[in-house]
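Page 37, continued from 36.
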């Protein structure tokens, strides 16, 4: 195989059928990958595969339901990811969040069953409130206690829904963002993305502890 050096490019050229077959298999598996050159010596050097460009360069992932790669959609608040929190079942995080805008428990039960655009739009036209009551506690809209509920709900969702958890862990160490046309004032996109990454970190730590326990022959914590 012939190596051709050009400005900013290292090219490979096959010279026989055996090399052509080997190169075809190699390029099929390495398309989109990033390589690192360690500097080598006077006799030559090596290129080291760092993996897919998006992962190696830690490109950010913008989490928006039904936009971008479908494999990330389960992370979104609008996704159908059933979970239970404080005795109530929810079809989505959005159903939980929008339900807080209603005072009657019957309305919250109704909204809890929604996901996708139906959940997102269900509270349109509802009067804006400065405070709400959840599980006996009075919370100020947009304050720390309100946002803490979002973190708690996300922890429940990713702990209980397999697809959502696997999607979140599959993002690796890539930064997550939540950039939408109209940002929320109660839970801005930057804060939402930070919550996802905090949950991801906790899940990964838990996964590591479970793996260590399995290796040591100890039962996993429940």
């Amino acid at each position: 195989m012939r190596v051709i050096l050009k400005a900013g490019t290292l090219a490979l050229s096959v010279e026989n059928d055996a090399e052509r077959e080997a190169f075809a298999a190699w390029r099929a598996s390495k398309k989109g990958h990033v390589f690192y050159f360690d500097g080598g010596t006077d006799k030559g050097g090596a290129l080291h595969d760092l993996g897919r460009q998006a992962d190696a360069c830690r490109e950010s992932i913008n989490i928006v339901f039904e936009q971008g790669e479908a494999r990330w959609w389960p992370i979104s608040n609008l996704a159908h990811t059933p979970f239970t929190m404080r005795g109530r079942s929810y079809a989505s995080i959005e159903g939980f969040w929008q339900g807080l805008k209603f005072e009657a428990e019957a309305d919250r039960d109704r909204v809890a069953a929604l996901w996708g655009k139906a959940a997102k739009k269900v509270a349109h036209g509802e009067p804006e409130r400065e405070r709400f009551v959840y599980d006996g506690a009075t919370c100020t809209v947009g304050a720390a206690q309100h946002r803490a509920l979002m973190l708690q709900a996300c922890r429940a969702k990713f702990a209980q829904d397999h697809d959502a958890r696997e999607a979140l862990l599959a993002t690796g160490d890539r930064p997550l963002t939540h950039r939408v046309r109209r940002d929320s004032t109660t839970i801005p996109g930057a804060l939402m993305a930070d919550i996802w990454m905090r949950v991801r970190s906790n899940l990964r730590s838990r996964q590591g502890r479970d793996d260590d326990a399995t290796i040591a022959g100890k039962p996993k914590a429940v």
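Strands lie at 2-6, 9-13, 33-37, 47-52, 61-62, 83-85, 88-90, 131-134, 137-140, 176-177. Flag for discussion at group meeting. The radius of gyration is 24 Å.
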